[in-house]
Design brief:
The protein is 43% helix and 17% strand. It has a 7-stranded parallel sheet, with helices on both faces. α5 packs parallel to α6, α7 crosses α11 and α9 packs across α11. The longest helix is centred in the middle third of the chain and has 22 residues. The chain is globular. The structure holds nicotinamide-adenine-dinucleotide (NAD). The site of nicotinamide-adenine-dinucleotide has 29 residues, from α1, β2, α5 and β5.
Length: 325
């Protein structure tokens, strides 16, 4: 399709070598899109993992990788002009809640300044049909009014990471208002699956179970997370990409939170290994529960998750065995 493809088919994906980005790139290629991916292969976790994650896309004639940093405005603008995409999916960000507490400036630079560079360029180019800004459930902080709905104020994040994610949602609205840009903010909830980011609990625990390590259990194990299989998240992302709404904020979560103890039971069952558990102190930036109300995603996108957690975690475990052992 490369020969005949027009800009109609092109999607620019930032953060393309990351966990979600690499899965999204392959799904878009599979669906017949041309994909131009941007990533700076930062060292939040081993860049070699990112190289391996994006390797399967590199041989595809409809895929182009641009190794650049979205903080470099001129380089980003040149890349976007050259790619001339119809759709933009903006995933590039620093995404570690704990590290953000220790180093907020880095999060402001990458997540806020980098996003504004991108919005400025999209505004300049002028004919991008729809932009997705990938936000996070962390914008809700510890809001006790669960399940969380998009209409919540979301003005009490616990981590500077969540604060940067919320700030960019607000900037997105201003860009929509002033320049008529279509931007949808997707709030992802605890995504897991193939190419899982290594600093997330499902990965860390899979690794511990399969390599004889210790499971660090925060607090009493009662904290709950709305774990969402990456395949479901990506299906929702592609649906949102093709539907410009002006400005919208949409939760993409599983709507079935699992406690840490319940997650451990699932992983023990899937791996067939009994965990060696050690208690660990909870981080203050860690919320009690994440729980998405997904009625808006159902209504606007016709989306709902379909992968049961046991099936999704089994895929994570199989992927880990094939790629990390
Ligand atoms: N994984 C989740 O559960 C989850 C939940 C909520 C929101 N999100 C959001 O989804 C997006 C993707 O997350 P992920 O889990 O795939 O994380 P990830 O760290 O695996 O991917 C992010 C990618 O962005 C790249 N990147 C970072 N800063 C960059 C910069 N300045 N210029 C160019 N590239 C840069 C990194 O190298 C990395 O490959 C992030 O915006 C994150 O905040 C993820």
């Amino acid at each position: 399709m490369n020969q005949q493809s027009s800009r109609k088919d092109t999607v620019l994906v930032t953060g393309v070598a990351g966990f979600v980005g690499s899965n999204l790139a392959l799904a878009l290629l599979e669906a017949g899109y041309r994909v131009v991916g941007i990533d700076n292969f930062d060292d939040t976790y081993d860049p070699a993992f990112k190289e391996a994650q994006i390797a399967p896309a590199l041989g595809n004639p409809d895929f182009e990788l641009m190794r650049l940093d979205i903080r470099e405005k001129a380089a980003l603008a040149a890349a976007l002009r050259r790619a001339h995409p119809r759709f933009v999916v903006h995933l590039a960000a620093k995404a570690d809640t704990r590290l953000a507490v220790a180093d907020p400036h880095t999060y402001v630079d990458n997540n806020i300044t980098g996003s504004i560079n991108l919005f400025e360029t999209i505004r300049d180019v002028g004919d991008v049909e729809n932009t997705l800004y990938v936000s996070s459930s962390s914008v809700y902080g510890n809001d006790p009014d669960i399940p969380w709905r998009e209409s919540a104020a979301a003005d009490r994040p616990l981590s500077p990471y969540g604060a940067t994610k919320r700030a960019v949602e607000l900037f997105a609205h201003a860009y929509h208002h002033n320049f008529g840009m279509n931007i949808t903010c997707l709030r992802y909830f605890n995504v897991y699956g193939e190419n899982n980011r290594p600093n997330m609990v499902p990965y860390k625990w899979t690794k511990a179970l399969l390599t004889g390590g210790v499971i660090e259990l925060s607090g009493a194990g009662t904290r709950k997370r709305d774990y969402t299989y990456v395949g479901d998240t990506i299906r929702g992302t592609i649906l949102a990409m093709t539907k410009p709404f002006g400005y919208e904020v949409i939760n993409l979560g599983n709507n079935r939170p699992l406690s840490l103890t319940e997650l451990l039971a699932v992983l023990e069952k899937v791996t067939g290994v009994k965990a060696n558990v050690e208690a660990r102190e909870s981080s203050k930036a860690s919320v009690e529960e994440t729980y998405a109300d997904i009625s808006k995603a159902k209504e606007l996108l016709g989306w709902e998750p379909v992968t049961p957690v046991e099936e999704g975690m089994a895929r994570l475990v199989e992927w880990f065995k094939a790629n990390r052992l």
